[in-house]
Amino acid sequence: MSGQRVGIAFPTVLASTVHDMKNSLGMLLQALDAIIERIPEAVRDDLRELAVIKYESERVNHDLVQLLALYKIEQDQLPLNIGYHDVTEFLEEQGLLYGELLQYRHIELSVHADEGLFWYFDADLLASALGNIITNTIRYSKSAIELHAFIQDNALQLIVADDGPGYPKAMIEKQQDYLLGINQSSGSTGLGLYFSGQIARLHSKDGRQGHIVLANGQPMSGGAFRMVLP
């Protein structure tokens, strides 16, 4: 035996571990949904702990999905499956995914999209990106969230808006630097915004790349996350 140690590509090992964790957490979320379904609706609102478990589990799941996708982007292994989709239907599906969380937190989510609006995008990647944004928006919203979609400057504009406190001033001013480190007061790392920005950039046309924009005050009183897809 040579006694030489076999080199291990740590990023690959980490990606495999994240993949296994994501699958296990997915099974836990399915089991939790099954438990919730067996609880009479009349008493669900009284079980606030279920809302916390569901919400935090969804957040962890989104983080794992993002980490795995970012690794694949870095390795140029993330497939891009562009399709022609009904935007209103797509946004309504995203809202339905978070029906339990919205109900527990007494938040109303509504979709506002131009009639007959279709666009080209990767539905799975976009769902992952918007899913993280919606989950965080639920955390800060007071009572309402709006999903908007329309065409402007020959690009699809997707907006997730809420009636919460809005984005911090520092985040608005330095929104190109998504990974700002850990915010000790909120625990935010900016990973979700960075991931969304990367997914937007994967969508390009005629030399134009997709991007994201953060703002406050429009179309609601709180924060507004905008994804622009050419």
TrEMBL record:
<dbReference type="Pfam" id="PF02518">
    <property type="entry name" value="HATPase_c"/>
</dbReference>
<dbReference type="InterPro" id="IPR005467">
    <property type="entry name" value="His_kinase_dom"/>
</dbReference>
<dbReference type="GO" id="GO:0000155">
    <property type="term" value="F:phosphorelay sensor kinase activity"/>
</dbReference>
<keyword id="KW-0808">Transferase</keyword>
<dbReference type="InterPro" id="IPR004358">
    <property type="entry name" value="Sig_transdc_His_kin-like_C"/>
</dbReference>
<dbReference type="InterPro" id="IPR003594">
    <property type="entry name" value="HATPase_dom"/>
</dbReference>
<feature type="domain" description="Histidine kinase">
    <location>
        <begin position="16"/>
        <end position="230"/>
    </location>
</feature>
<dbReference type="InterPro" id="IPR036890">
    <property type="entry name" value="HATPase_C_sf"/>
</dbReference>
<keyword id="KW-0597">Phosphoprotein</keyword>
<protein>
    <recommendedName>
        <fullName>histidine kinase</fullName>
        <ecNumber>2.7.13.3</ecNumber>
    </recommendedName>
</protein>
<keyword id="KW-0418">Kinase</keyword>
